[in-house]
């Protein structure tokens, strides 16, 4: 504790004080409480069921690596992750392409009905996908997209359009208009301007939209739940629930499976923390 | 998750200040090529479904063939006469109240604590934000284990005290509090991050000046920090209400709506009592109710509360 106090004292704006120590201690306790369920999940995946019952929160007496190993060497884990990755990558790519094209049009061109069409797309900001989920299910069925990846990807893209068009359009409008004037003067058309000037200058906003759309798709549950029937197409969220349904009585395996399925998100978060936090919060703030 | 935000509050006055360029052949080509994909996707997968929900809601329809049995407003009558639905509605309300009274103040307190130049501030921020990045489904399942009376945290506590095992998730009086705990755990870090972003925008000179004038830390917080954080707080209230209204992913792995259907939300009610039973008309009516609540709230909030932001 004195070490912590010293640390605060050395870098704090004002020299230490009781308040700083109390604050720090409170944060440590809270951080422990936040991390505890995740750590408990990961550690308990190493136990066998009888030890889980008698020792739910200590370190394992015997480390059952086989719990994790059997999942990692099985087909199922990699399949659900692969499905999630496929769905998320297509969702991100399509979202970026479709919304940056629409955003470009709305940012630079005035034509009859432009304001109306922009407001039309922004209707999507007013309600969550859950409100329309039942007719959406009927629509996906009637289009023959049930139980297909596209049945998940296309609605995900459609429901993220309102937000992404808005974010990207605002960013496009902030590019200096002299650029466009100069390009036009040199005989560069809108298409080439879009590809060679607008897009290369819009890295930050495009990556923000990509982060939002990737995380949303990767963690999505409701939409794949209603669209997909075959376990071979399940993303990890559905795969996790199916696994839990199957091994309901073996918590240690379920916990190992949870740990392994949330691992990619945790690793990505640790590696790209700054971008992910900025993307998810700035996206909310800027929209 | 879904793209719900507060676009309406954006001033659009600047949007059209740019001198209008004349539409040329080239620019019409852009409109014709660049706009249709977005318009088509939006119309097919967002606009038509929500419009159809309004239509299907008037029918007794199982989803096969065309909707033919027109029953007027009867679905809505069944809905509000259904105690499980009214309970879901109340549950959504409880989540909102809980978020506003517990989650957001906690997030604000933590943000203020971290924003001072504290050792490890970066680490604290990262730890508190981490649950937000994890999927709701995983969060629900992790906490299902924590609350398990035989194995989890609750089990460990009762064993330690020699008490009989207690199954919180099977207790129809208290099971819903489990949902609230998971919501708090999962989402307070997001709101904290919004507040931290807001705090970073406050000029430290203001606080220093107040300090020199002898303002206590509480006075500084109450009279300077809090008002300047206003726009961010209003934004986080908005997200927290819209998020609470659409809560579903946590419910399924945590309680599945039970025990005795006491922990459903509107969306889980829609799923368990409408969609899985192919009562398309009935569940469309639930969607319409949710839609009306969301849109009324979003419009009202942006027009009244966020009007100056």
Oligomer: heterodimer
The CATH superfamily title of the largest domain in chain A: MetI-like
Q: Rough shape of chain B?
A: globular
Which CATH class of chain B applies here? Mainly Alpha
CATH architecture of the largest domain in chain A: Orthogonal Bundle
How many helical elements of chain B?
14
What integer value in Å does the Rg of chain B equal? 24 Å
Helix count from the secondary structure assignment of chain A: 15
Q: In total, how many beta strands of chain A?
A: 0
Task: Give the arrangement of secondary structure elements.
The complex is a heterodimer of chains A (287) and B (309).
Chain A: H1 2-11, H2 18-44, H3 49-54, H4 65-72, H5 75-108, H6 114-122, H7 133-142, H8 149-174, H9 177-185, H10 190-201, H11 203-218, H12 222-227, H13 236-246, H14 251-271, H15 273-286
Chain B: H1 25-34, H2 36-56, H3 74-80, H4 83-115, H5 121-133, H6 136-146, H7 153-160, H8 175-200, H9 204-212, H10 217-228, H11 230-245, H12 251-254, H13 266-275, H14 280-305
Which key phrases capture this entry?
heterodimer; A: 287 residues; MetI-like fold; 2 domains; globular; disordered N terminus; B: 309 residues
Describe what this molecule looks like in 3D:
The complex is a heterodimer of chains A (287) and B (309). Chain A is mostly helical and 287 residues long. Chain A folds into two domains: 2-69, no CATH class; 74-286, MetI-like fold, CATH 1.10.3720. Helices cover 76% and strands 0% of the residues of chain A. With 309 residues, chain B is mainly alpha-helical. Helices cover 67% and strands 0% of the residues of chain B. Chain B has 14 helices and no strands. In chain B, helix 3 crosses helix 14 (280-305), helix 4 runs antiparallel to helix 11 and helix 9 packs antiparallel against helix 10 (217-228). In chain B, 46% of the residues are buried. Classes of the chains: A mainly alpha (287), B mainly alpha (309). The interface between A and B is large, with 110 and 108 residues.
